[in-house]
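Chain A, query sequence.
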Amino acid sequence: MCADAKNFYLATPLDRYEYMKMPVNLIPPKFIKENSLTPKIKNGHLYIEIIRGMYGLPQAGVLANKLLKERLRENGYHETTHTPGLFYHETRPIWFTLVVDDFGVKYVGRQHAKHLMNVLSQFYEMEEDWLGKLYCGITLDWNYTEGYVNISMPSYVAKQLVKYRHKSPKRRQNCPYEPEPRVYGKKAQEVPKDKTSPTVTPEDKKYIQQVVGSFLYYARAVDMTILHALNAIAAEQANPTERTMTRVKQFLDYMHTHQDAIIRFYASNMVLNVHSDASYLTATRGRSRAGGYFFLGSVPTNGKPIRLNGNVAVTCAILKLVAASAAEAELGALFLNAQEARIIRLTLAEMGHPQPPTPVHVDNSTCIGIVNNTIKRQRSRAMEMRYFWLLDQQVQKFFNFQYHPGQENLGDYPSKAHTGAVHQHVRPWYIHGNKSPRELPRALRPSSRRGCVETLGDPYNKRTPLPSVPVP
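Chain A, predicted structure.
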């Protein structure tokens, strides 16, 4: 269930009083007369002492949050040690997350959820949603019988397109960000040269920054297929050019074509799985890009396929340090993904799901040999020293680093730009749409491959409670 506290910031006692003066011409005469404020007006202003929280105060949010924690603590609810915003009860089987004034509650037994609502109702006017349909702007469609939940943000993209006055494209756009031309031979390892283009006006610069900011939350929450495009555009938004504006328009065309994305999460054993990958020399100034795909499933065993699920996190970032080889780029991407995985492992453990060694899939044999200490490290000594933190994590059994071919690595997709045909080919395995892969045109159906991933003809087959998705 979900809940919302109304007027959460208001009426919170301040640690220190604040003072403000307001021009009289901003106050309605009727209000001045009803409250007898005329004798208190001096030099055309009314001087006000603020003793409780109100909108506009910088400290209003933190004071309201501290007061809420004190009230919850008195009734046995405590915030977890390592995960801010995650609360649990001393004895009751109930957990909830708090984002500003929105409560997302997981409970076993309706009486325990009612206990939480009764506690909050003593201090706040609560709006309760016992179907758990909406949380932080995300719509949740629960199906307990078949064991899955769909999350989406209906009409969000359409509203943003209207906001930015974007016209409908004449044809479908299936590529959010145009990839650089492929280079073969010796020149494939050369640093790509940046193309020069005139700078845009300050108004266009602000427009680009607003588009990136508006769609970033949508990308993190629902549609991970646009993360690479947003990441690449954001890298140029400080000094955008006309080429950047062209890419923004192409991105908006893609959003117009693919408006309502849905992610489906199936019931699982809540074991974190990570797919890590990197693309060498694909970012500007000779940098490389890291990609990662995090999902909850089961522990893979010998002879049994891996069961995939919707993503709980996605890594799409440019490595800060310039990699001298593809192996070092893979090691840097694995370093970033392992750092993120450590945080998610803590959160899962505090939610009551202790984690075995997290299986991490990498498609670079040299990188796997380094972190598993199965190869003689000679030239790898020139690699960034901090990356070798991974060896300690493997020895302490926090991770189980495994080699798997790139065809079966879901972290490859967000690490680089792709053509429209590739996006159409791969999108059904990341985003749950209205059509299953069997209903797609034959040229766009993902192919079934043998390997570590179990292949099913239809990953959304209702008869399969936890489907296994083939990866192209």
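Residues 2-136 form one domain. The first strand starts at residue 2 and ends at 6.
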